[in-house]
Amino acid sequence: MASGGNDGTVRVWELLTGRQIWSVKLSSEEPVSAVRWRPTKDTFILAAAAGEDIFLMVPTHPGIAPDLDQTSRNILDAGFGYATNGQLHTVPGKEPPAKWARPGTKLEDEGVRIRVTVRSAVKVISWHRRGDHFTTVSPSGQRSSVAIHTLSKHLTQIPFRKLSGLAQTAAFHPLRPLFFVATQRTVRCYDLQKMELVKVLQPGAKWYVSRKLLQSAIVHGGTY
């Protein structure tokens, strides 16, 4: 199990014994606001957010098989090659939605491989089930509050230039190419292939749509 603290530290715990097996201090100024494991069995990758930074890391422990550790590191590092080969293009004079970079020698020595810096403090991280995409939500980010990141390309996109309401959380549908965004009062469902709004759910809440309600919307979103 992974946890994040107000002291800016991410910790990994062994559930059978309850003991801490790994930790890394990501920030001296910002608390860790979100931690999420990459949902695939072939890697041991953890994402965590502190302030405007998202960190992608491979926790180290003697119990982790060397091939699993190496595969995880290779997947995180592959995107640097994609960028080096000139596949990523930026618009001159326009600030990119995120900056992908090495986190520095100290953090790299402790297993942190990538730092992704976005425009506003991240509060939510949610992975796609295949593990190549993950979304982050920065409620104070206005138009750039929801971002979708592609791990294999080290690419960040802002899918919604106009979003009604302040985004609180977001998630991918587990089976279908659907993407859900919850604002304070609605849940919006988008088709990722057609890049269009499919449905708006209004639960009747006066304020803040919870993650539990979003999960319920995802379940029912697969049936309409």
Shape: globular
- State the secondary-structure class: alpha+beta
Assembly type: single chain
Number of helices: 3
Helix content: 10-25%
Number of DSSP strands?
A: 16
Radius of gyration: 18 Å
Write the H/E string, N to C: EEEEEEHEHEEEEEEEEEH
Q: Describe the largest sheet.
A: 5 strands, antiparallel
Low-confidence stretches: none
Approximate strand percentage: 35-45%
- Biggest sheet strand line-up: 4-5-6-8-7
List the topology elements.
Layout: E1 2-4, E2 9-13, E3 20-25, E4 32-37, E5 46-50, E6 53-57, H1 66-84, E7 99-101, H2 105-109, E8 112-117, E9 124-127, E10 133-137, E11 146-150, E12 155-157, E13 167-172, E14 178-183, E15 187-191, E16 196-201, H3 211-221
Antiparallel strand pairs: 1-2, 2-3, 4-5, 5-6, 6-8, 7-8, 9-10, 10-11, 11-12, 13-14, 14-15, 15-16
